[in-house]
Amino acid sequence: MNETVEKIGAHEIAAWLRRHPAFLKQFPDLALTLVVPRDDGPTASLASYQLEVLRDKNRELSRRLAELAVNAQVNERLAVRTHQLTLALMRQDSAADTLKAMAASLAEDFNGDSVRILLLAPVAGLQADWLQVIAADDARLAPFRDCLRDGEPICGRLQAEKQAVLYGEEVGEIQSTALLPLPGVGLLAVGSRDPNRFYPGMGTLFLRMMGEALVTALQRFER
């Protein structure tokens, strides 16, 4: 019975203190004598406990700020490279040169281990080991129907049938891919030997921007 009364009393005291957080300012001696259990066993004064909590929060905030700074630097570099790529595409004098510039930039500036461009129609004067032309009604495009229809980039480990169509003999080397549909044009894939380079849920803003830049650049040469 007494234990029940003590528990109820303790809860009431805790509730009252939550409503009056400045109470200990009136009685600083209480703050010095109260003890708080620690995770590792020993107890500490309320003041030292609060100080340790503040230090933990400060360390967490510092870590998050450092992560934000790193992400900001990465995004800035990607923005600059994407802008430079867009300008390079707009400077080309033919569809063939535009696609060559795109493949070169993805391989060099964006460190792609294997770049693949799959077109739905041939481009005059263009042959390359990174290029395939597959008609829209070809059965080999069946694994990509959803991607082409939805227009959504896919990042991560692709299904075996997609890997085989895109990479051919290199299929066993590529561990992750960023696959980007190009509306009315085809598909663009950037493969990596690193299984963690491209992963589901990663941001695709810059991929979309590069795809839109390529499609727009190619539209200049349509008749």
Topology record:
Elements: H1 2-19, H2 23-26, H3 28-33, E1 35-37, E2 43-45, H4 46-90, H5 95-108, E3 114-119, E4 131-133, H6 145-150, E5 154-156, H7 160-167, E6 176-182, E7 186-192, H8 205-219
Give an overview of the whole structure.
By secondary structure, the chain is α+β, with helices and mostly antiparallel strands. Among the domains are: 1-25; 94-219, 2-Layer Sandwich (Beta-Lactamase). It has eight helices and seven strands; from the N terminus they run H-H-H-E-E-H-H-E-E-H-E-H-E-E-H. A hairpin with a 5-residue loop joins strand 1 (35-37) and strand 2 (43-45). Helix 4 (46-90) runs antiparallel to helix 5 (95-108) and helix 4 runs parallel beside helix 8. The longest helix is centred in the first third of the chain and has 45 residues, at 46-90. It is elongated. It starts with a helix and ends with a helix. Residues 1-6 have low confidence and may be disordered.
Strand order, largest beta sheet: 4-3-7-6-5
Order of helices and strands: HHHEEHHEEHEHEEH
Question: Helix fraction?
Answer: 40-55%
Mean pLDDT: 85
Q: Between the first and last Cα atoms, what is the distance in angstroms?
A: 91 Å
Main pleated sheet: 5 strands, mixed
Number of helices: 8
Q: Mind telling me which CATH architecture of the domain at 94-219 this is? A: 2-Layer Sandwich
Based on Cα principal axes, name the global outline. Answer: elongated
Number of strands: 7
Oligomer category: single chain
Radius of gyration: 30 Å
CATH class category name of the domain at 94-219: Alpha Beta
- Identify the CATH homologous superfamily of the domain at 94-219: GAF domain
SS-based class: alpha+beta
Low-confidence stretches: 1-6
CATH topology of the domain at 94-219: Beta-Lactamase
